[in-house]
Amino acid sequence: MASEDEYVARAMRRLAEVLETQLALVKPEAIARLSEAYTSDEKRNFDSHIVGLALQALQNNGTIVRRTATSKGGHFIATYEPANQHKRTTDIAAAAARKRALYSRYLGWAQGTKRYPEGMLGPAGEAATRAGILASAALQPAQPGAGSVASILGVTLPGPADSAGYMNPIISGIPQPPVTLIFEVKNIREWIYPSSSEVFQVLEKGRVLQHGCPTSPIVPILICRAAHPTAFWMASQLGFLIIDMRAQFIGTRVDEEPFMEVRTELFFTDLYLGDGPSLRVRDRLAKHLPKTIHLVATEWAATTSSPMADYFATLRSGKLPRNDRNQLMEDLRQLNKARGKRGGW
Fold first, then answer.
1. What architecture does CATH give domain 4-111?
2. pLDDT tens, position by position, 203-226
3. Which residues pair with 249 in a beta bridge?
């Protein structure tokens, strides 16, 4: 197996090749082109963090430069460009301006505008998840339409869950005790890693609920666009679930032409008009979870009764300094190892 340095070197070569044709890249586009381009093992994708390391290494050795400028909408956006701009300065400047404009448009959809202050991606992801939950017919939603839930089982959550409900699995014809599921939806471009604050937002809600109802089977579920394999390993060991939609829904209020420009030119090939239903959510709930949900709930109860649960509230903050987050994650891994778990995240 190749080392991280070898993967970074390969990604550096690939990025240099891409920049020769694209002339400018925004970072999420670079990740899309290198991390999500291929569907077979004939050409391997790079993990998203490897792409980030490769971009930094290319800056350090002078192959590329990082420039920042304000684009339409007031967004301050960085582009990566070849350092050697001989006889192509104008072309590179035009390419960079175009990429900034397209990414600024995407950020308007994601972060909100005066017209749509909540943005479009968040509500669309929640709608796709709720539609997937309803289409699965695998659980009884806690709210009509599988809507958001501020309290459940008599416990007020530390922030509403995007959805929640009760699964009554039937195994070998025998009904099993109901399991309470709470859902957190993060319809974001970034990959979810074990240290991502989004993970701990749903875990903290699950912890509060489990402590309030210590004898009830409970499973937190994080819904996202994409997650690193180590995040799934973490979930299996701690007793929660991640469902990667492998799609980023944008809703129905975007015109097709500007949508297609962003999707095509930034290589956001999993960006979709509409709000679902998410077929991945539907199928995971209907076909896979009923057989294992009680095992997951048992693992979650054990995790929340261990010292590991004390870390969730702090790690849920997206403003935690990187060094502090890294140290807390290492402490969390050691506590997990002390429980006899394999680790790997």
1. Orthogonal Bundle (1.10)
2. 999 999 999 999 999 999 999 999
3. 272
